[in-house]
Amino acid sequence: MIKRHLSRKIKEAAKKYPVISLVGPRQSGKTTLAKMTFPRQPYVSLEKPSELAFALEDPEGFLARYPRGAVIDEAQKAPELFSYIQAIVDEKQTAGRYVLTGSQNFNFLQRVTESLAGRTSIQKLLPFSLGELLSSPWNPTSLAATMFTGGYPRIYDKGIRPTDWLGNYVLTYLERDVRSIIKVGDLSVFQRFLKMCAFRSGKLLNLSALANDCGITHNTARAWLSVLEASFIVFTLTPHFKNFNKRLVKTPKLFFYDTGLLCYLLGIEDEKGLMMRPEAGAIFETFIISELLKNRANRGEQANLYFWQDKLGREVDCLIDKGKELVPVEIKTGRTISQEYFKNLNYWCDLAKCERKKSFVVYAGEQSQKRSQGTVLGWRDIVSL
């Protein structure tokens, strides 16, 4: 069993808040983490029809079975519970009383903010991070294998071929989550939309072009993308708007949380030759950006990642906003360090009047080194950023 890095933050939060809200995609390990972190708390899943019916019909009676609290899985299925939980914790502020998990961010967080604002700590559990895998029995053997497999726990726990498990995951996701949020007349059209999103991972998001390619309206594309974001399938990276007296791109970039799922949707059947494919650069950039995001989520931090691009195409792949300074990060698919890797970083550092040595290049090789123009990180060392 892999120790999840988020467990430390959850334990800290459980000493301060009466409710812990654990969100994340389906099959990211939320149930396992909640059970392991709070082994003395009773566990109940609203995926079980009888429990769900009880919670919906008699929420007060349902909660009365757990006078000292409980771990309630897929809590968003019974929204009536949230108001009753609010009343219970307001009466007696016992820290760590309830742990609520949810895999539909939109429905779950809407209820949390309506009823439990100020009473809950919201934590996000994403699929395994590279750092978690590096300290596990499944220590990654290669970059290609790591990106192809992705981070969903069951693939590792059960030794399932990634394409087999991910194929079933997509079908289950389409049947269960999409239909529960929006009405999709033809699921094949939505599946095409999902694949078209995959071909745009790591690229500027053009909703109109995406809609045209799928034969749907702009508004439908926007709604469907919101569903993918709410279900932790994709996310967008916002451009940094500090002007520097230049014309800047203000369109966000689209990324997938999991490169295993991304590879599956791109039709990649194994890791052999993955790094030679035309999509390799986008997959690697997705991998690095998602790892930076996972690292922050596992520490309970807000995402502080941006990118920068001007109208002439000069770009910095990632800017880490540390409050007092911006740390530029360039992502390169090559395995051999080149002076060319620092070109855009040097330009941006001169423009922003920051020290070049504080910039980073992350590349597909193994060796990390410090240079006068910045630090070079091999892909395994991304855990340090």
From TrEMBL:
Species per Swiss-Prot/TrEMBL record:
candidate division WOR-1 bacterium RIFCSPLOWO2_02_FULL_46_20
Against InterPro entries, the record matches this protein to: AAA_14, DUF4143, P-loop_NTPase
Boundaries of every DUF4143 domain copy: 175-333
Superkingdom = Bacteria
Q: Where is the AAA domain?
A: 18-134
- Name by which UniProt lists this protein: AAA family ATPase
Pfam families found in the cross-reference section: AAA_14 (PF13173), DUF4143 (PF13635)
